[in-house]
Design goal:
Elements lengths: L29 H6 L15 E5 L3 H12 L3 E5 L10 E3 L8 E3 L10 H9 L4 E3 L11 E5 L2 E5 L7 H18 L1 H10 L2 H15 L4 H6 L7 H10 L14 H9 L7 E3 L5 H8 L27 E7 L3 E6 L4 E4 L2 E3 L11 E2 L6 H9 L2 E2 L1 E8 L7 E3 L5 E5 L3 E4 L5 E5 L7 E9 H5 L6 H15 L14 E4 L10 E2 L6 H8 L14 E3 L11 H18 L15 H4 L8
Parallel strand pairs: 1-2, 1-12, 6-18, 9-13, 12-23
Antiparallel strand pairs: 3-4, 5-8, 6-7, 9-10, 10-11, 14-22, 15-20, 15-21, 16-17, 18-19, 19-20
Helix pairs in contact: 2-10, 2-15, 4-8, 5-6, 11-14
């Protein structure tokens, strides 16, 4: 059973324990922490009602605020744009409201078990996402160097694709102990996870993804490496990731984060929006019926933060775009960390100098998408040949190509209902190629490329509205889509991830906590946003003199037992 494109790993049978994003860097069971009836912890009654600034209203910020509110604190959320961050769902002008496009996160693996806790909590539904050759994807076309191959399963593709798949499997096994690590993660075998990963971190921190492939005997063929880069595994081509650290890629494949994806029905932005309005069943200090919305004037977050500083008593002072100045005993910063270098005037004393270095060295990936609404899922129509004979094939398929579009996804809402096409989803250099073009200019180039793959399909004739597009590197409050460490960046990521353990910091450098998926080990995945939000919640609770229940230790309580590998600085 596999839902990946041809070069994917052959996963452990479904009869074994399910996989979760449980390490390998910090093998803490966030899903168990959330599910425990004792809750996440409590603070002394004398601290109830204390205000805590939460900067950034994306998923990490809203979850941190929601959990701090449940403990009896008063989160004050600041958001420069709209609640949701990179969970951004938009509609199409003049089209039915149910027709939406996911400009940011759009597919979520079952291994995102902490994320799933909140999806279930707010009553959202998920549905299989049509990745290349996924079980729910009717068909896939792989188009490389002008040659197209139609497939409903990997067996329909030429042998060279299976050769590349086998090379990737062999490369992972011989160079990264894939099977042993995957099994240890399933079984939550912490000693084995740490034994394998500590050796790999030391060995591979300076290695690129591409260098890892080149060192493998299985990938000695340049042709195989080229095909692998263009087609990739799970969600498509990964050649844009070739310069990044191989450790980033291993985190993805070990935990099957790029497999069996599901989309959120109605759009992912509903998750933070519903949490914003949700009144928890169990809440301390606040009256029943209290929500994050009700704790904020007019039900809206404060505007963008323009200045952060430390003031007397080691408090955090926040200035926002309205000119309002407020001072807090604690703050959680969940926005893209580069905002601390550009959009926000910062006091150097906010963080230790080595943390500032880590923030400055954070490497963000560019990413762009363009969607169009169409009248119906016409791609399910059956094609005919030049003689008018039925071929049995869909007229259009989920498409992977080396052309400008790279990845095209077909998203339907049922037979004969209006549907959506993601004409192109690209990263890094491929994304930068679109940056100077308007939405309509992008659409024209994309339709031309797809017309070369599907010369007999009138895609334009089915479009019923204007395109919507995003280039995350051009978004002023993001400046990139997600973090991806370069070789040698492990030490920087460790500093950022472990920042919530503030007993290790001088007293004058405590009180502001970093969170967000770029602080996590799994940036680009909503699970990382959830995990670091929970770390920050533990940190704030600890600062206020609170504690977890002994039967449900938090990430800080177990930190010394499972702390990320620490590499020497000299």
């Amino acid at each position: 059973m596999t839902s990946t494109v041809p070069t994917a790993v052959q996963h452990t049978p479904a009869t074994e324990s399910p996989i979760t994003m449980f390490g390998p860097d910090f093998p803490y069971a966030y899903d168990d922490f959330l599910a425990h009836p004792a809750g996440l912890g409590q603070i002394p009654a004398t601290e109830h009602g204390q205000e805590v600034a939460v900067i950034g209203g994306g998923l990490s910020g809203i979850i941190a605020a929601y959990e701090l509110m449940k403990m009896g604190l008063k989160p004050v959320v600041y958001e420069a744009d709209k609640i949701g961050g990179r969970l951004r769902t938009v509609g199409f002008e003049g089209c039915d409201d149910e027709l939406t496009a996911e400009m940011g996160a759009m597919r979520f693996p079952p291994s995102s078990t902490a994320l799933q806790h909140y999806i279930d909590l707010v009553g959202l539904e998920t549905t299989p996402f049509p990745n290349p050759l996924a079980e729910s994807t009717p068909s896939t076309v792989v188009d490389l160097k002008g040659e197209s191959h139609y497939a409903t399963s990997v067996d329909d593709l030429p042998q060279v694709y299976r050769d590349v798949m086998n090379a990737w499997n062999a490369c992972l096994e011989e160079g990264a102990d894939f099977s042993a690590m995957n099994r240890a993660l399933r079984e939550r075998d912490i000693p084995t996870i740490r034994a394998i990963w500590s050796q790999l971190v030391e060995k591979l921190d300076n290695q690129t993804f591409y260098g890892f492939l080149c060192e493998s005997e299985a990938f000695k063929s340049f042709r195989h490496r080229e095909i692998f880069g263009q087609v990739g595994f799970g969600t498509g081509g990964w050649d844009t990731d070739f310069p990044n650290s191989i450790l980033e890629i291993l985190r993805v494949v070990y935990t099957e984060a790029d497999d069996h994806h599901r989309g959120i029905v109605g759009g992912s932005q509903q998750l933070p929006l519903r949490l914003w309005e949700r009144a928890p069943g169990k809440i301390v200090h606040w009256a029943q019926g209290t929500s994050l919305s009700s704790l904020h004037e007019a039900g809206e977050p404060r505007p963008a933060v323009t200045r952060l500083s430390r003031t007397a008593g080691n408090r955090i002072t926040v200035t926002d775009a309205s000119g309002d100045i407020r001072t807090y005993p604690a703050a959680v910063f969940t926005a893209q960390s580069w905002m601390l270098l550009s959009k926000i005037e910062c006091d150097d004393r906010l963080f230790p100098i080595d943390h500032w270095t880590a923030i400055e060295r954070t490497h963000y990936m560019e990413s762009s998408k363009l969607f169009v609404p169409v009248d119906r899922p016409f791609w399910l129509d059956k094609a005919v040949d030049d003689q008018g004979n039925a071929t049995g094939r869909d007229v259009m398929s989920m498409t992977l190509t080396d052309r400008m579009t790279r990845g095209t996804y077909l998203l339907d809402n049922g037979p004969d209902k209006p549907a959506v096409i993601c004409l192109s989803y690209t990263w890094c250099d491929d994304s930068l190629k679109w940056l100077p073009l308007s939405a309509n200019e992008r659409m024209e180039v994309m339709l031309k490329s797809l017309g070369e793959i599907y010369p007999n399909v009138d895609i334009r004739g089915h479009i019923i509205g204007n395109p919507v597009t995003v280039s995350w590197e051009n978004e002023p409050y993001f400046m990139g889509a997600f973090k991806a460490n370069l070789p040698g960046h492990y030490r920087y990521q460790r500093r950022l991830f472990t920042h919530f353990m503030q007993d290790r910091l001088p007293a004058e450098q405590r009180g502001i906590f970093l969170a967000g998926d770029d602080i996590s080990w799994t940036a680009g995945w909503a699970e990382g946003a959830v995990q670091t939000a929970l770390n920050a919640v533990w940190g704030v609770m600890h600062q206020f003199g609170g504690a977890t229940d002994p039967t449900n230790p938090g990430p800080g309580d177990l930190f010394d037992e499972i702390a990320p590998v620490e590499l020497p600085e000299d």
